[in-house]
Design a protein that fits this description.
74% helix, mainly alpha, 0% strand
């Protein structure tokens, strides 16, 4: 379920970049140039964060095995 959310965020970020990049002036001076660079930097951070979360999320099978092991270990009789 979370992978769907990450994919949706990536698609929305790509959609915003598709419309914004032609309108942004990278070599502008002053406040406009600072805004452009910071906006693109934040967009790249969003893309990197969502890709990292989507690619390195743990599998569900590993969680189930760990829960099964914990339940067996908790049955110790003294």
């Amino acid at each position: 379920m979370k992978k769907n959310r990450y994919l949706l965020c990536l698609l929305l970020c790509g959609f915003m970049l598709y419309f914004a990049v032609p309108r942004l002036s990278l070599f502008a001076e002053g406040l406009e140039g600072i805004f452009t660079i910071s906006w693109l930097a934040f967009a790249l951070i969003v893309i990197a964060g969502n890709l990292t979360a989507m690619l390195y999320s743990p599998a569900k099978a590993v969680k189930k095995r760990q829960q099964h092991r914990i339940s067996k270990k908790s049955r110790s009789y003294y």
